[in-house]
Design brief:
Shape: globular
Largest sheet: 8 strands, mixed
Radius of gyration: 20 Å
Distance between the termini: 71 Å
Strand content: 15-25%
Structural class: alpha/beta
Length: about 270
């Protein structure tokens, strides 16, 4: 009986360690944020606030969305997906910059971010949230000439996942992107460490790139101290055509587009007009 108790105690300890590792990954990789602040209305920009229901099969709950319509119903439209440790409010300048290009914009907070209820997100949940948002986005912009998705940082991985499985994606913009979280971890430590086996919420895009037929634009700044530009270059090289890149010297991870907003605008125009 003593041996059996030891085995059971060991199994309990292993299960507890695995559970804690799972929770730690979800917390640190996705870094849910509840930062709030100004809305488009504070900048004189008309918008509508939406709460999009998530099917019970995906855990239920609501995805918080801002809808910023364009002046013309046929203007191109873009779904904006932010990264970890971010919210609609922290990324409002980028959201409004997209709107100033004449685009209709939908931007979302995944469950567990911003003004939403407490929720510990996962790789699966944010993928599901983006797909729910995509359906609502298409319904709100049925006449738009193009339907694009713009993902920043972790949002870029979410955008690539959605573009690989969703119909009607006319263009993908990945800002500060990467191929997997394991690649980022290795860039800070050593390439031989087994992060691929240890990280379950890896946001890997390796197997999805071939399925993304839409034109792709990759944006990166050399001053990015979160995702090294070398990882963005690798993502660009492994992606299928049609593709383009806007890699700029200087800048940073959170606001690379500010490094040269005119070049950023021209690059987006090319994707839109492709």
């Amino acid at each position: 009986m003593g041996t059996l108790k030891k085995i059971l105690a060991l199994l309990v300890a292993v299960l507890l360690a695995l559970s804690l590792w799972e929770l730690a990954q979800r917390y640190f990789i996705l870094s849910p944020s509840y930062q709030t602040g100004k809305t488009p209305q504070d900048y004189g920009v008309a918008f509508k606030e939406d709460w999009l229901p998530v099917p019970q099969a995906e855990g239920g709950g609501l995805v918080h969305a801002w809808w910023l319509p364009a002046e013309s119903p046929i203007a191109p439209a873009v779904l904006f997906l932010h990264g970890n440790d971010s919210t609609l409010h922290t990324d409002i300048d980028l959201i409004l910059s997209l709107r100033r290009l004449g685009l209709a914009v939908m931007a979302i907070d995944y469950r567990g971010y911003g003004d939403g209820a407490w929720y510990l997100p996962s790789q699966h949940s944010v993928y599901a949230d983006a797909r729910v948002a995509w359906q609502a986005f298409k319904q709100r912009s049925p006449e738009a000439s193009k339907h694009l998705v713009y993902g920043h940082s972790l949002g870029g991985a979410i955008a690539m996942d959605m573009a690989a499985v969703s119909l009607g994606v006319d263009g993908v913009i990945v800002d500060g992107g990467f191929l997997s979280v394991a690649d980022i971890a290795k860039s800070y430590t050593a390439s031989w460490l087994p992060f691929d086996a240890l990280i379950r919420h890896d946001f890997s895009s390796y197997s999805k790139l071939a399925a993304i037929a839409a034109p792709k634009l990759f944006i990166h700044c050399s001053g990015d101290d979160v995702v090294p530009m070398a990882l963005g270059e690798r993502l660009y090289q492994l992606s299928s055509r049609p593709k383009a890149k806007l890699f700029m010297q200087g800048g940073d991870h959170d606001a690379c587009y500010r490094r040269d907003e005119a070049a950023w605008q021209r690059a987006l125009d090319r994707v839109i007009k492709y």
